[in-house]
């Protein structure tokens, strides 16, 4: 599959891009609300199943199922935030972890009940299949597509956070929630919208990931450590930090498994531990 | 004169410790009212209770006669209560102009989802610039707040509070950390606000208190020890005991 070094690096970048789309919402919830949401992957899984169902049952084209995955996961995130998550913002991290791991198990049981425990097949449209040969290297078309989507998303996200009024509201609420409320900002509403946006991005990532990571009910558990690593190493509350961390993690994970398969996933964990020792707050971490 | 904001039997208890105990104070329309008291007297807690940042253990808060005890902080802002915080850097990742514009936009009810560029809110930006100019912060409008000198951050706090166009301005040590000459300037700017704005301020510097306050409430150990006009407070032996002669003898307020 990996023909050469450049191909391996490119596959790693594509894998990292996926991790970033899914994990960036976790960076917001962790950085903004200080909420340890282990169930973030459940929203990604929901997006994945939305894509599969729409494609297989309703014959919706793959590209059109992606916005639906975003909307469904965002809506689920909004509802859960308003009904359950918000009650635990001031709870201890242990309570948050116990609550959100409970959400993970419920989502796994629910997905198994509805869809069974097997891997969901996904058939990408023809124009996203196959390889293209550029300068003597083979690149998977779908992986090029992934990288392009994530590049566009990153630019859009940076614009929303840096330039729009919602972005300023979000940054003000992150910086000092009490003082933001003191300006008349409905911080609870900002949090809910941010949570929905993050969950929606996870859902979109879940849809994009089916072909690369696979989709079965254990998805939220299987990749939980990767999502948490991206945020911990990148720095909660930022966009650029998790992007860099996800790309590093993606490249080293793919390269490690390709060149030193006997180490399995260990190489990348060793690297992440080293990075956390060097940057305890993450690459773009903030104090406090 | 009628009370804009008043409290009835307001208490805040943490375990066995009363930060505020049975505090009943009325702030008259247009007042320049100082809250004084030794460290730990519960002054900041009292402001937190007024703005809704902290929920009281007992008692009520009334704004224009309406019970607002359980109203969320951001809703109280919309009803005209603004405050400053004793925090050095409020929004380190925002520029000075951005943060003031946010307050203006919220006041104007531009709640919405806010997907438009903040820079396109031209009316808000010109109003924000006018507020910053009035507080001599115009030159810093594009700086990130974390790079501002300490005194300027305190001025920005006041600019942010003013941007909500308050009827009730609660200032928690507005002059703390500002050089003496500038602190007179800051409090002077506050005193010159139109009388539609009622000002309540916590201040430790007794010279500033007796220069700008027209009414003073003294809190000690969470309760009201005394309240009155500055000359009454200055003459009150119980207050003099607490302050050990820090209070200027027979000095009249200037502004």
What tags apply to this protein structure?
heterodimer; A: 288 residues; mainly alpha; ABC transporter involved in vitamin B12 uptake, BtuC; two-stranded antiparallel ribbon; globular; B: 255 residues; alpha/beta; Rossmann fold; 2 domains; five-stranded antiparallel β-sheet; 11 strands; 34% helix; 24% strand
CATH third-tier fold name of the largest domain in chain B: Rossmann fold
Structural class of chain A: mainly alpha
- Which structural category do the helix and sheet elements of chain B fall into? alpha/beta
Spatial order of strands in the largest sheet of chain B = 7-8-9-4-10-11
Q: Helical percent range of chain A?
A: over 70%
Provide the residue-averaged pLDDT of chain B. 86
Distance between the termini of chain B: 19 Å
Helical proportion of chain B, percent range: 25-40%
Task: Describe the global form of chain A.
Answer: globular
End-to-end span of chain A in angstroms?
44 Å
Give the name of the CATH architecture of chain A. Answer: Orthogonal Bundle
Strand content of chain A: under 5%
> How many beta-strand elements of chain A?
2
CATH architectural designation of the largest domain in chain B = 3-Layer(aba) Sandwich
Number of domains of chain B: 2
CA radius of gyration of chain B is 18 Å
What does it look like?
The complex is a heterodimer of chains A (about 290) and B (about 260). With about 290 residues, chain A is mainly alpha-helical. Chain A is globular. Helices cover about 70% and strands about 5% of the residues of chain A. In chain A, a hairpin with a 2-residue loop joins β1 and β2 (about 135-140). The longest helix of chain A is centred in the first third of the chain and has 29 residues, at about 5-35. The radius of gyration of chain B is 18 Å and the shape is globular. In chain B, α3 (about 95-105) packs parallel to α5. Chain B has two domains: about 5-90 and about 155-245, P-loop containing nucleotide triphosphate hydrolases (Rossmann fold, 3-Layer(aba) Sandwich); about 95-145, no CATH class. Chain B is of the alpha/beta class. In chain B, the strands form two sheets. In chain B, strands 7-8-9-4-10-11 form a six-stranded mixed β-sheet, with helices on both faces. In chain B, strands 1, 2, 3, 5 and 6 form a five-stranded antiparallel β-sheet that branches. In chain B, about 35% of the residues lie in helices and about 25% in strands. Chain B has helices at about 45-50, 75-80, 95-105, 120-135, 150-165, 180-190, 205-210, 230-235, 235-245; strands spanning about 5-15, 15-25, 25-30, 30-35, 60-65, 65, 80-85, 170, 200, 215-220, 225-230. Chains A and B meet through α6, α7 and α8 of A and α2, α3 and α5 of B.
């Amino acid at each position: 599959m990996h023909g050469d070094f450049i191909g391996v690096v490119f596959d790693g970048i594509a894998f990292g891009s996926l991790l970033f789309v899914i994990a960036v919402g976790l960076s917001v919830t962790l950085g903004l609300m200080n909420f340890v949401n282990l169930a973030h992957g459940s929203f990604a899984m929901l997006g994945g199943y939305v894509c599969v169902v729409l494609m297989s049952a309703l014959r919706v084209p793959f590209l059109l199922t992606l916005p639906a995955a975003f909307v469904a996961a965002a809506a689920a995130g909004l509802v859960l935030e308003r009904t359950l998550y918000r009650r635990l913002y001031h709870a201890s991290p242990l309570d948050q972890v116990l609550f959100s791991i409970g959400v993970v198990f419920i989502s796994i049981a629910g997905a198994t009940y509805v869809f069974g425990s097997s891997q969901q097949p996904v058939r990408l449209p023809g124009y996203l299949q196959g390889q293209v040969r550029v300068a003597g290297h083979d690149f998977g078309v779908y992986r090029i597509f992934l990288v392009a989507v994530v590049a566009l998303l990153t630019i859009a996200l940076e614009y929303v956070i840096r330039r729009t009024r919602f972005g300023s509201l979000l940054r003000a609420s992150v910086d000092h929630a009490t003082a933001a409320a003191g300006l008349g900002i409905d911080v609870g509403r900002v949090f809910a919208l941010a949570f929905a946006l993050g969950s929606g991005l996870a859902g979109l990532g879940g849809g994009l990931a089916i072909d690369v990571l696979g989709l079965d009910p254990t998805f939220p558990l299987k990749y939980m450590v990767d999502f948490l690593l991206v945020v911990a190493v990148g720095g909660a509350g930022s966009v650029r930090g998790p992007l860099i961390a996800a790309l590093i993690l993606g490249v080293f994970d793919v390269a490690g498994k390709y060149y030193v398969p006997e180490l399995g996933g260990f190489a990348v964990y060793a690297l992440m531990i080293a990075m956390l020792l060097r940057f305890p707050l993450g690459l773009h971490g903030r104090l406090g | 004169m009628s009370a804009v904001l008043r409290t009835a039997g307001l208490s805040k208890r943490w375990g066995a410790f009363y930060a505020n105990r049975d505090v009943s104070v009325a702030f008259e329309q247009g007042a320049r009212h100082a809250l004084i008291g030794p460290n730990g007297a519960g002054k900041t807690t009292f402001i937190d209770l007024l703005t809704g940042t902290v929920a009281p253990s007992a008692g009520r808060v009334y704004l224009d006669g309406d019970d607002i005890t359980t109203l969320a902080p951001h809703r109280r802002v919309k009803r005209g209560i603004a405050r400053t915080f004793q925090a050095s850097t409020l929004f380190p990742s925002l520029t000075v102009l951005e943060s003031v514009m946010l307050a203006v936009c919220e006041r104007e009810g531009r709640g919405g989802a806010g997907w438009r560029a903040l820079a396109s809110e031209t009316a808000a930006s010109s109003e924000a610039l006018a507020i910053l100019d009035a507080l001599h912060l115009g030159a810093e409008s594009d700086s990130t707040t974390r790079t501002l000198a300490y005194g300027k951050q305190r001025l920005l706090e006041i600019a942010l509070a003013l941007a909500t166009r308050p009827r009730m301005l609660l200032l928690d040590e507005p002059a703390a950390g500002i050089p003496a000459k500038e602190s007179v300037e800051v409090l002077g700017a506050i005193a010159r606000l139109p009388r539609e704005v009622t000002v309540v301020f916590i201040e430790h510097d007794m010279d500033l208190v007796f220069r700008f306050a027209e009414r003073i409430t003294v809190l000690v150990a969470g309760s009201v020890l005394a309240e009155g006009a500055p000359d009454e407070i200055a003459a009150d032996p119980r207050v003099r005991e607490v302050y050990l002669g820090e209070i200027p003898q027979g000095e009249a307020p200037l502004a």
